[in-house]
Design a protein that fits this description.
Belongs to the IUNH family. Keywords: Glycosidase, Hydrolase. This is Inosine/uridine-preferring nucleoside hydrolase domain-containing protein. It contains 13 helices and twelve strands. Strand 3, helix 2 and strand 4 form a beta-alpha-beta unit. Helix 3 crosses helix 4. The N terminus is likely disordered.
């Protein structure tokens, strides 16, 4: 993990939603985001007109509502149900979402990898359900050789804790993706959970702007305001207090020297439907991995430079990206 960042590297992003900094952090260092696909499981958001946006997978490989409910009847209800939640709305049910509906996300991913394999192989970035990436692997197994590697936002790594908060709703897709022979497979797991908003961060953002009134009065700071809420951390909702899951993985993908500690494991996903641990990750030291179960070789990021991450976050929020599609550059806001 000692590779220093090199401007000009490319990435294709697949997620079940989208945070602005997940995209802006790569752009900040001169990376090209060649495409974004958004899948079932959460809401998405529109992005810059110069970054192609595709419709990702809209249902799991195998699971249906009936089988999902049946598993919960046997082993207990999950807190986070994704697309199986009764109140779930389709990712693209809002009128302000624009995307290329002539090409499926998996196909767009494959074509992007093929187009760059001989010159500058691109990275894949995935979070949420791994369904779109699994579809792409099914269409084109050469994805693992022709891309530079895969970065995953893996969420909670402690399986008992994860079970109480929600497990992946497409374990079969996750198993396909995690056990493919990627050149590089890096997962941000627990490290993505301890980097969270705080009153200290709020105070730094407000001080950078000059006052909370400045942020409230300038429409460009809508994303900052959605993070700050009232500016008082103790008054904010659970949504406003969520960790910087996606942003953390984007940051250490682009700036790998942020990484301070990693672990190397063999990994698989429990895909036995009649198991209370269905959907959970299983890991072993390479020397102790089972021989009859297909596993993948993964790097788990355990610790990054927290202070530098927050500095990058603040700096990126205070850059003006409105002319990026026209100029290919951002401008530092005079605050």
């Amino acid at each position: 993990m000692s590779r220093l960042p090199i401007p000009g590297i490319k990435v294709f992003i697949d997620n079940d939603g989208l945070s602005a900094l997940q995209v802006l952090l790569p752009l900040k260092l001169g990376w090209e985001v060649v495409g974004i696909s958004a899948s079932f499981g959460s809401s998405s958001a529109n992005v810059s007109s110069c970054i192609p946006h595709y419709l990702g997978a809209q249902q799991p490989l195998l699971r249906k509502q009936e089988t999902f409910d049946y598993w919960q009847d046997m082993f207990g209800s999950l807190v986070w149900k994704g697309a199986f939640a009764p109140a779930y709305e389709d990712s693209y049910s809002w009128s302000n979402i624009t995307y290329d509906d002539s090409v499926a996300g998996a196909v767009a991913m494959v074509e992007a990898v093929k187009a760059n394999r001989d010159t500058d192989p691109l990275y894949l970035w995935a979070a949420g359900m791994m369904t779109t990436v699994a579809q792409a692997l099914s269409l084109y197994p050469g994805l693992v050789n022709d891309s530079a590697g895969l970065y995953i936002m893996g969420g909670y790594f402690d399986t008992q804790y994860a079970a109480a908060l929600g497990t992946p709703i497409d374990p079969e897709a996750a198993q396909i993706v995690l056990t493919a022979d990627w050149k590089t497979l890096v997962i941000g797991a627990n490290v993505t959970n301890y980097l969270v908003p705080s009153q200290e961060l709020y105070d730094r953002l407000i001080a950078r702007a000059g006052s909370l009134d400045v942020i409230e009065d300038d429409l460009y700071f809508a994303l900052v305001l959605s993070l700050l809420g009232s500016g008082n951390y103790t008054e904010n909702s659970s949504e406003e207090a969520l960790p910087f899951w996606d942003e953390v993985v984007s940051a250490f993908m682009v700036w790998p020297d942020l990484i301070e500690r990693t672990s190397e494991f063999s990994m698989t996903v429990d895909t036995l439907f009649y198991s209370p641990f269905y959907g959970n990750l299983r890991i072993w030291d390479h020397d102790y991995a089972p021989m009859v179960v297909k596993t993948g070789s993964v790097t788990i990021v355990n610790k990054i430079d927290d202070a530098r991450f927050y500095d990058l976050l603040i700096d990126t929020y205070f850059e003006d990206w409105r002319q990026y599609c026209a100029t290919g550059k951002s401008q530092v806001l005079k605050y």
